[in-house]
Description:
The protein is α/β, with parallel strands linked by helices.
Amino acid sequence: xxxxxFQPLNLGAITAPNRIIMxxxxxxRAKTDGVPTPIMAEYYRQRASAGLxxxxxxxxxxxxxxxxxxxxIWTDAQTEAWKPVTESVHKAGGRIIMQLWHMxxxxxxxxxxxxxxxxxxxxxxxxxxxxxxxxxxxxxxxxLRLDEMPRLVDDYGHAAExxxxxxxxxxxxxxxxGYLIDQFLRDGTNLRDDDxxxxxxxxxxxxxxxxxxxxxxxGRERASIRLSPNGDSQGVDDxxxxxxxxxxxxxxxxxxxxFVELRQPGPDxxxxxxxxxxxxxxxxxxxxxxxxxxxxYTPEQAAADVASGRADAISFGRPFISNPDLVExxxxxxxxxxxxxxxxxxxxxGEHGYIDYPTLAEEAAAA
Length: 367
């Protein structure tokens, strides 16, 4: 039944032995300075049977990271602490790429010494930010100036170089879920009238410049991207997503990136329900490389979409939290454990709800 998921797939230069990808999952187990902790190496090692692991979103700079105990990749200490993570995955026979993250207006000023966050325009995200002092209202962002764009691209480049030093197999640009690149892509938050605003061609300019830098460092076959073209995400939306993401797809096809991952949340999605038309068909018609779809898939739905050609692979998020051997469970048709006690343990520090979920073999031994 699940056979389509167990065919190998070339994702650029990376050969995935199966088409069950581990989606990026923020887990908040780093130190407060963004330095990864030893339990993170065990967490990723346990899940190394995935066709490919996409790391949790990782901050490219102090300016870009506003999640308590999320990891970074801009300092030497952070870079060194990632090395045991990649080594543990590789020793277990796995592959892992780093997702590069700038949160834009979602960064609360408490992470920035009281300074406002940056974004495409002076907008304010709805809701509240998670901060070390508890939940606080988001702040109005400061629009990035034209003369700051090269520095921003350099920040991504520096992070990408550090990811290579840390032993990753590639990088993914986080351009989804209402974070900085998404804030530039979509016209609900990009109100600019300069070279980075207005037309879809201008709104994808920053994405293009960053992808070009990542390709210069990693090569096109090890540089990928995540987009979320369907509906509102943390207050970020677009009046004509087919035009916007069609242009993004054209750029990504021209650049020849390793693969494109699309987040398409269903009614139980983390960032809100979407009942809008899916845009994967628009992107699929333009971008001819591997397409990975994500969110709220069952194994049966995943196999069907791969078999039909709608997607080349499926990335699973939450099922990987409580099922470190998710690949084996899908292969054998075994039960998939629910996420007990979540969301409490999604982001809490420590081993509980992180590295203490049993494999099938461990369940059998305990029984």
